[in-house]
Amino acid sequence: MDIARARYLASPAGRAALAALPPVAVRDDPNKLVSTLRRSYPPAEASALSEQAILNARAAARFGNAQRAMLLTGPGLEMMTHPAIARRRAERLTALGLPIADLTCGLGGDLGPCTAGGLRAVGVERDRATAILARANIPAASLVVGDAARPPLHIEEHAIILDPSRREGARRTFDPAAFSPGWDTCLALASTARAAVLKAPPGIDHARIPASAEMEAVQFGAGLREITIWSGAGAVPGLRRAVLLPAGAFLTSVEAEAPPETVPAGVFVFDPESCVTRAGLVRHLGHRLGARMLDEQVAYLTADTPSFDPMAATFEVLEVTPFSVRRLKETLRAHHWRPAEIRRRAFPVEPDDLLRLLGRIEGEEITLLCTTIAGARTVIVARRIRPPSSPAGA
Ligand SMILES: C[S@@+](CC[C@H](N)C(=O)[O-])C[C@H]1O[C@@H](n2cnc3c(N)ncnc32)[C@H](O)[C@@H]1O
Questions:
Q1: Cα atoms in the 13 Å half-sphere on the side-chain side of 32
Q2: What separation in Å is there between the alpha carbon of 241 and the centre of ligand 1?
Q3: Predicted pLDDT of residue 169
Q4: What is the torsional sign of CA 355, 270, 285, 387?
Q5: CB of 372 sitting under 6 A from ligand 1
Q6: Cross-strand bridge partners of residue 224
Q7: Is the CB of 182 within 6 Å of ligand 1?
Q8: How confident is residue 391, by pLDDT bands cut at 50, 70 and 90?
């Protein structure tokens, strides 16, 4: 976004014009919207207002109404932390009682919730137009245009946030060179600050996480969103934590672990959430559930008594069978079981391919848990069960 557009949007005239816009849906035609707005505004303003209206609709579709009043850019919205994750981060930072500096503040997704506790909060942003919008979005914070690599404040006295941007196309593999500020710069800043929280992509290698830091694998809904690296004040070196939001469920590496010995599938099987596997806490969850692993390389757990925890899906085992499409088809047909869901761990066949190979089968909805146990491809036919009070699908 250019600076003139950002200035207009942040001005009283721009804010008033935005407030007067009719509701817009994500799928609305931006050209039609601009034509309508041109009847009341000069072309540049009509274009700026239409862009905001569409971006706000996109933000509402993604985050609910939490970010409704924010001024946005397309890339800024893409990179913005989910509000539920930002709120929890802010609560943890606020509890430290230190002034907070977000050195890569973007539009203020992380910085905004940090101002709620009344502590001094500063945002640093390299891009001028983004900084203008952030200043309007987070009036309770001070906003500085600057380079995080040369912070314009004493980070030794601050709790800092670092959420480096990533080059396009660098999403899949962890490439330290793809970050801005560079990954090594982020680590150096984090180790200098009084306290630091560094946001990393879910795929980061464990080797890249300093041993002196605490790591969290943060999941929102079904998706693993980020690895959060905490250091300095308030961080517990070496601790790993699985964080599941919005449930607000946690599991840490200080909890006891189930014994490492594997056991055959019992009456129940548990499928841990991604935050548990990513934090390397499967046996810790096993202890909580009173369950053991089926195979030391595979995250499925099993027990003879049912347990329910937000960190895992619980299944009642109906049948355990070596993998063969023909045999599986026969079993499903014989029992009138319809595979409504296929989950897999350490299993080479794509769920959609397996469904196609099995063909149409009618009957009770069941889940297939496809895996490899002691080197043998195995299918566990199972029924999802939930705690007595919870609604189906929760
Ligand atoms: C991933 S975004 C931050 C998003 C923010 N946490 C949020 O939730 O809205 C990273 C931001 O850092 C800015 N940035 C990148 N390199 C920077 C640097 N060296 N100094 C300051 N800001 C930088 C980018 O312009 C971008 O706005």
A1: 5
A2: 25
A3: 59
A4: positive
A5: no
A6: 219
A7: no
A8: low
From CA 121, how far away is CA 116, in angstroms rounded? Answer: 10
Q: What percent of the chain has pLDDT over 90?
A: 86
- Backbone torsion region of residue 236, taken as left when φ is above 0, otherwise alpha when ψ lies between -120 and 50, otherwise beta: beta
pLDDT at residue 393 is higher than 70 = no
Q: Tens digits of per-residue pLDDT, 240-281?
A: 999 999 999 999 999 999 999 999 999 999 999 999 999 999
User: Does the CB atom of residue 130 touch ligand 1 within 6 A?
Assistant: yes
CA of 183 to the centre of ligand 1 (A): 13
Instruction: Tell me the average pLDDT of the chain.
Output: 94
Total-model pTM:
0.92
